[in-house]
Design a protein that fits this description.
Blueprint (H helix, E strand, L loop, with lengths): L2 E6 L2 E10 L5 E8 L13 H20 L11 H16 L2 H18 L9 H13 L12 H20 L29 H10 L19 H28 L3 H5 L6 E2 L4 E4 L1 E6 L2 E6 L7 E4 L2 H21 L22 H14 L15 H13 L4 H8 L4 H7 L1 H27 L4
Antiparallel strand pairs: 1-2, 2-3, 4-5, 5-8, 6-7
Helix pairs in contact: 2-3, 7-9, 7-11, 11-12, 11-14, 12-13
Length: about 450
């Protein structure tokens, strides 16, 4: 039977014994109860009535404890739980970038309801919180509200936290499972940007022109001697070959930026014409970190066409020649794409060079129809996927090359390409059936 002890003028401590643990220590569950002193009509309760309320609460508390319905979530605040979640789970299991996002979301949660106990986070309260997020303005001063996708990502973090609380026996159910996130009635058109096939062909042609890689005002001093001009020519050729190979690899494999920058020569198999994607690089709290790929299925081996292998061989020879020319200044990390001293290429460099090439190419075009869209580096990944789907490559093969954990992800992102295929299929079927109908209806002379 639960024991009741008055600990204050209007506070009672309820204690229930639950046997002993493995080392013989008695297990107790405690809670403090403060009964209402007034009736529903506002009149003071009698001492007997208050004692009856306390006894009823103690009996209910004992029942919940003995049947497993009472958890530590009744007394643990969200803020206290968040600290345990980060230390005991997130920091041990999440990738650096994911952990950073989790920590950022948790700071917001603590600010909003960190004082509340886990048990008091009801579906209704969390629904109101999510609805408020959908109406919140962005911090950039644009006046726009948070996107539905942003809110869903924050909600996913909270749901994962509360699911882990169930595993730790702090909650009996996840209230986020009953929360609904309504998408806007008129969602923004979040189109992915990529090169069409003709644009991709023009882009590859542009990569052959050394002038497109050169930034205006690059030279700090004139090149007076033949030796200086030769060194400059070699440097230009070296830069061109490296970036050309980088962009070819991006557009022929669909790899992510971090996957490309993290590549080492050990990842490239010249004999079998494949490249292994087993790691990635990202920036977390202003530090560059090399980590495993985004998901288990992101680790993959991709076949390469002969033109890409040929470029790889060309770049490897030039890099080796350059490495020998600077001697001890070279910091050998085995990276394919490097800074001047052999260190891993900066994360921003591919994006900057891509835009330089596109802008320099567009500056030479008199015909507007020949201009290339200024796509981000990730647009080359979208280009690869779109062209593969447009070439009727099996969607599972496309998903495998991209490193998507699920085919559904590929289907959702590249629905535009699938719709175009469906239109082509419809036109082809109409053309075929029309021909048959015309043949059948034709009257022989």
């Amino acid at each position: 039977m639960a024991s009741i002890k008055k600990t204050g003028e209007n506070a009672y401590q309820i204690v229930v014994s639950c046997g002993y643990n493995s080392i013989g220590k008695k297990i107790r569950r405690k809670i403090t109860y403060k009964p209402e002193l007034l009736t529903a009509k506002g009149n003071p309760k009698s001492a007997a009535s208050i004692e009856k309320d306390v006894a009823a609460f103690a009996a209910d508390f004992e029942r919940k404890v003995l049947t497993g319905q009472y958890t530590d979530g009744h007394i643990m605040t969200f803020e206290k739980y968040a600290a345990k979640y980060l230390a005991e789970y997130a920091e041990e299991n999440q990738a650096p970038r994911t952990l950073q996002s989790t920590e950022s979301a948790i700071k917001e949660f603590i600010s909003a309801f960190g004082y509340m106990t886990l048990e008091n986070l009801t579906p209704l309260y969390l629904q109101e919180y999510v609805n408020a997020l959908l109406k919140r303005k962005k911090a950039d001063g644009s006046g726009e509200t948070l996107s539905c996708g942003t809110v869903k990502r924050k909600a996913a973090v909270l749901s994962a936290m509360l699911s882990q609380a169930i595993r730790w026996n702090l909650l009996s159910a996840n209230p986020m499972e009953r929360v609904q996130i309504k998408a806007p009635d008129t969602p923004k058109d979040e189109k992915i940007v990529f090169f069409s096939q003709p644009e991709a062909e023009r882009f590859l042609e542009a990569l052959e022109n050394p002038a497109y890689y050169t930034a205006s005002g690059r030279l700090a001093r004139p090149l007076d001697t033949t030796a200086q001009r030769l060194d400059d020519l070699r440097a230009n050729r070296r830069s061109m070959t490296q970036y050309k190979f980088l962009f070819y690899l991006a557009i022929f494999t669909g790899c992510r930026r971090g996957e490309l920058v993290a590549l080492t020569w050990d990842d490239l198999d010249f004999t079998n014409a494949t490249i292994s994607i087993v790691k990635s690089v990202c920036r977390v709290k202003k530090k560059i970190i090399i980590k495993s790929t985004k998901t288990k299925k992101s680790a993959r081996t991709i076949s390469l066409p002969e033109i890409v292998i040929s470029l790889a061989q060309e770049w490897k020879k030039e890099q080796e020649y350059y490495r020998l020319s600077i001697g001890s200044q070279w910091k050998n990390g085995g990276y394919i794409f490097t800074r001047w001293n052999g260190e891993m290429m900066g994360l921003e460099t591919p994006y900057q060079i891509l835009h330089r090439v596109i802008n320099n190419y567009n500056a030479t075009q008199a015909d507007e129809s020949a201009l290339l869209p200024l796509i981000p580096l990730h647009g080359l990944r979208h280009t690869a996927a779109t062209l593969l789907i447009g070439s009727n490559v099996n969607i599972r093969t496309v998903a495998s090359r991209l490193g998507h954990s699920d085919v559904t992800t590929t289907l959702n992102i590249y629905s535009h390409a699938l719709k175009e295929l469906d239109r082509k299929a419809s036109d082809a079927l109409a053309d075929t059936l029309s021909k048959k109908a015309n043949t059948k209806n034709s009257v022989p002379e």
